[in-house]
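Ligand: coenzyme A. Inputs:
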Amino acid sequence: MRIREMTESDLPQVLELQGELAFQDWDEKQFLSEIRANYAYCVVSEDGDGECGKVDSHGELLGYAIFHLLGSDSELLSIATKESEQRKGIGTQLLQAGLDKLTEDGDQCFLEVRVGNTKARAFYEKHGFVLYNSRKKYYSDGEDAALYKYSVKLKR
Ligand SMILES: CC(C)(COP(=O)(O)OP(=O)(O)OC[C@H]1O[C@@H](n2cnc3c(N)ncnc32)[C@H](O)[C@@H]1OP(=O)(O)O)[C@@H](O)C(=O)NCCC(=O)NCCS
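Predicted complex:
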């Protein structure tokens, strides 16, 4: 298993994984614009070690994450692990790849998540994200959002 930056050729597998988990409904265009944005950091976790540096040689996609690295205030937009591979540490590695980009100058990472997404909330809380607010009826189906932040200083 290895973590590497997402490329356009990962998109079929990324879209398939998103569809399986049904937690988000981004289209290909949205993923493409993230991959191309210079402030976005998009990573995937794939099976195997990759084939001797061949850029287009992809293993099975096990997960992905998308961050916006915006100076002191970064954001985690999306993180997902294939259902059959959950609870094996893949989400942790994807999250760590983004958090490693934060500096120790008081940088923070923000995210919002459905209040009812207990799995993801347990995951974020395990990794030191702190609930700081909520947004009523934030999602189109009327569900509230829980707002979390992670501060680099909390690492210590
Ligand atoms: C949230 C998600 C990315 C976690 O990925 P993962 O690869 O299973 O995470 P890890 O294996 O690294 O889990 C690390 C820790 O998070 C917590 N955690 C993860 N899944 C959990 C669950 N179902 N119930 C309770 N705690 C959980 C645990 O503390 C776990 O450590 P442990 O297994 O030693 O107890 C995954 O559940 C997922 O893809 N969910 C669907 C998509 C989604 O809702 N994404 C978030 C909104 S954008």
